[in-house]
């Protein structure tokens, strides 16, 4: 069997974010998180609910197993029964996310997706982030616009819970006393110094920065032969 790729380590890191969640709606955004959520459902998180993104609950192979009308979807979103993994054009040390615009609000230099559902997601259910290209342009000192709400802005939000950030370099949580971002794991072949150099703010470090675990042979078979036989994951994460 060929060597495990960086993309496959990222799939595992994303899948692990749904471990022990129980019966919640998994909402992955992006190729790597989607493969990760489906892998988690097939292995260590069998109670996860997966959606087609519209109105149905589906199994990892796309078989319809339930109906999820919009009103019920909102109940899950606003009641903490959903774990979303969103993308981010910018993230700061507090976990504030920007997917709307780059530059000053009065005259931005770039228009992005828009705020969309980020405030509702972050204030009402557990949220993680996926960043396929870790750089100083993404991990910034201060986001240009707050879309997803960070730990410094969420006082009184009952279900606000920033879990982790997974990038193509490593895994981060918010386990410091002031709930700012810290590095907890690097992917194989990545150094702590590389992560520091690719981050605009000073990162906190876990007492022991570990290495992302490799997929088991069974997980690797599922990734390569069942979930992503076309290797679309390699287009999102190189190497």
Can you describe what's shown?
The chain is of the alpha/beta class. It has a single domain, classed as 3-Layer(aba) Sandwich (Glutaconate Coenzyme A-transferase). Helices cover 25% and strands 23% of the residues. The chain has helices spanning 6-16, 31-42, 70-78, 118-124, 192-197, 217-227, 233-236, and strands at residues 25-28, 49-51, 56-58, 64-67, 82-86, 90-91, 97-98, 101-102, 110-111, 127-131, 162-167, 170-173, 182-186, 204-211. The strands form 3 sheets. Strands 4-3-2-1-5-10-11-12-13-14 form a 10-stranded mixed beta sheet, with helices on both faces. A two-stranded antiparallel sheet has the order 6-7. A two-stranded antiparallel sheet has the order 8-9. Strand 3 (56-58) and strand 4 form a beta hairpin. Helix 1 crosses helix 2. The longest helix is centred in the N-terminal third of the chain and has 12 residues, at 31-42. The chain is globular and about 45 Å long. It starts with 5 loop residues before the first helix and ends with a helix. The relative contact order is 0.18. The model has no long low-confidence stretch (mean pLDDT 94).
